[in-house]
Amino acid sequence: MANTTTKLHVIFGDGTLGVATEDVHYLFSYEKGGLESILSHGKEWLYRPIRPIFWRATTDNDRGNHFSEESAMWLGADCFTRCQAIDVQVDGEDLGLPIAPQNNQFSNDEMADRVDITFDFQTATTPATKVTMHYQIVANGKVTLTSHLQGNEALPELPAFGVQLIMPTVATGFEYDGLSGETYPDRMAGGSRGQYYVAGLPVTPYLVPQEMGMHMQTRWLTVTRQRTLNNADVDAQPFSLSVEMNDQPFAFSCLPYTAMELEAATHIEELPLARRTVLSVYGAVRGVGGIDSWGADVQPPYRLFADVDRTFTIQIHPGNHVTD
Amino acid sequence: MQADIKWLDDPQVFRVGQLPAHSDHYWYRDADEARSKSSSFAQSLDGQWQFKFADRPQHRPIGFYEPNYDTSDFGTIHVPGHIELSNYAQIQYINTLYPWEGKIYRRPAYTMGSDQTGEGMFSEAPDNSVGAYIRHFRLAPGLRNQRVIVQFDGVEEAMYVWLNGHFLGYAEDSFSRSEFDLTDALVDGENVLAVEVFKRSTASFLEDQDMFRFSGIFRSVRLVGLPTVHVADMHIRPVVNEDLDSGELNVTLKLTGDLESKARVHLTVFDKADKLIVDEKRPVAKQISFGHLPFENVMLWTHHNPDLYHLTVTITDADADPIEVVPYDIGFRRLELRNQVIYLNGKRLIINGVNRHEWDAATGRTVSMADMKADLQTFAENHINAVRTCHYPDQIPWYYMCDQAGVYMMAENNLETHGTWQKMGAVEPSDNVPGSLPQWREAVLDRARSNYETFKNHPAILFWSLGNESYAGDDIEAMNTYYKTMDSSRLTHYEGVVRNRKYETSISDVESRMYASPAEIRTYLSNQPMKPFLDCEYMHDMGNSLGGLGEYMALLDDFPSYQGGFIWDFIDQALWVTDEVTGRQVLRYGGDFDDRHTDGEFSGDGLMFANRQAKPAMQEVRYYYGQYDN
């Protein structure tokens, strides 16, 4: 990790905000509405900006109980949610959106102890609601990401609420501290707590591709890759990025596919060739249910009603998991 | 006797010329053969058969069973196997609707009036494909100069059998063994066995299970020779007394052959430590009963200690040389129903069960010994202690294997008439069979009889299940009565009576439901239940499912009359296919064969994927079943 006495280097760009330590350089895109780059020791971690997600692929039970039909607007929100507002604070000073001419006052050696940047999203739902993603970077280079969904009782139940990191290449594997196997809120009693390594990005071969690979109650997660898309990068040494719980454990899946790709396939052989790593980190997910597959809903404690505010916080940093 | 194609249309004709069902024992020439489980009285006919497919009865090769019939246009097929998986006919998966849905209008004979006989419904049907099978054989030395029987372990759904041009009989009931006596039609040298298999008959109404719909000789075929004196049937009834320490054994043998000879019957029973417990000798007779043979310090058969005693019947000739040796491993256990609770050996029975279709992704319902062994291994690893043979009798070896493994069995009849009473989810039994129709009663009773007579000696069987999802009426009530008359050592099970509670007191010893929610079960058990409760199907494990198992397991803590249940189901039904685009082997489901109407991926409800890889949900089963593993 970076020396904690070192300050953050803040680059007030015209379309981005750069935040750098000796080990990692973050780029927040004002245009794309999110963190678009985590570059550490020459290795890029993001293929697309981190975004909020609301959908997990329909399970057979969801199909049977018409959940996806009832909640279909969250699929639209998952695909098309709009970033509406951005706010930057440096060392607690609110700068709004510091683009030209406001940023003409800065130089190339702006230093800070703390940078906060908040992206406000409006969901593509009717009615719309608000999602806020607040990134805080402190001098050790770690990002703390807090995501907040504003509840609205007029909205249908959610499949999930989380954030997604799409990485440019397929991971060689991931390690996590959590429960064994695939677990869900209503199916995790059999998961044993421990640290597990999963090689590659296995796709669970459900007859019809559907939600898969969820890991509940996770304390930390490290994804390891070996390749980048950088044409000048010939180094083949593995490199890692970690996600740590903040105050509460999180759920995640680490797959080569997005929920939309899973949703579109009728057989696993129709899924595209695995090219990227899709890391979805969830604050809340719907259970899978099990009473029957033609109507019975997931039991109420394991459903995500939309009328409550939901918040979750994770920490992201390059490298391996660090014991506090 | 002449074969009559109109039998296909008549629910009152379901077995012609077949030998009566009997116990599933194996017989050997001597003790060495018995030890090696290799009988020189048996000759397998599995392998390549000559085969000719016809898309409908009118196109079938008439007279192909004559030994001089010109078969130059016949192809071949592997026995055992499904005609559809040899690509002669289209594969179709469908759940509750009949496979001819929207293609042919049918109502079961006599459901719309006593004059509606159904004549021509199947014998003249364009969807009733026919497989003409021919197998040439020479008798193995061990079978010569004896009575010779042909055994078909499973043929779907109706068949006519000839030997050397002589008609031998007709059979329905795809999942029970059918036997015909060949002796009088045998010739020296080469014999010609001919089997005409129809995909549809009135049996189609009784076999509407949620599965791929196949036809053909899909289980093994063999010849067996009967020695001069032969044990045709054995009825073994071990009894454990109330003290759970002492007991008695009752054995009744039915013999055939030369019963005037000086041959003798020798009955022995050894315990697992090779201690001789029973040693009885009798002269041969048509029926021999050994009653009330006392046992002390009985080793009880349970899931965790499936201790079996080794019973052997040896028939010896006047010189005391063996004529026939029949081994059978037997188990002592006491099953009781007291105050709405089922007890096994004095302990409340907890069923950590699964429903298991016979399935192999490459060969369909033709499953191998390796498949069966793998499944039992999976049971053991995941604390699965019980299996329901949904919804038909399984291959015979499976029952022996469950005896050995201590797996409790719900032995189900081959019966499901789902499409005759449930339409679009609603109960609408206006054309239900068997219902209370006398014309359908004997057919379903015959299925009950075959199931009972074949498997009656297996300690693993705790429940006789009358069938699946067939509504309830006088005919199913008659099946219940049949089992109650024959067998006091087991309980009867049938779920469908909850759809017609008029028969509640006369059908099923248990309140069995499928897919009841935990709350519904609580309601039943909190209101003076008439019967113990079990889920014959629960936790529908389609795709990524099996959430909420803990709420069912909690019922075990709260209600003594809750006995557990059978998860639906053990293994996905899907088929290996070469992908038409990539050339890879991939798993396909209903609708992937242009089959319409179909229920698509609804057959993928297993704890195991179709390739016998466990689904991730299995760890949840292992955990909860392990918590209640007694």
From TrEMBL, chain A:
The UniProt keywords, alphabetically, are:
Glycosidase, Hydrolase
Coiled-coil stretches noted in the UniProt entry, renumbered to this chain: none
InterPro entries reported in the protein's UniProt record: B-gal_small/dom_5 (IPR004199), Bact_Beta-galactosidase (IPR050347), Gal_mutarotase_sf_dom (IPR011013), GH-type_carb-bd (IPR014718)
Q: Is DNA damage found in the keyword set?
A: no
Catalytic reaction equation(s):
Hydrolysis of terminal non-reducing beta-D-galactose residues in beta-D-galactosides
Q: What class of enzyme is it?
A: hydrolase
Q: Where is the Beta galactosidase small chain/ domain?
A: 18-317
**Keyword Methyltransferase set for record:** no
Ranges annotated as spanning the membrane: none
PANTHER family under this entry? BETA-GALACTOSIDASE
Q: What is this protein called?
A: beta-galactosidase
Q: Which organism is it from?
A: Furfurilactobacillus rossiae DSM 15814
Q: What is the lineage of its organism?
A: Bacteria, Bacillati, Bacillota, Bacilli, Lactobacillales
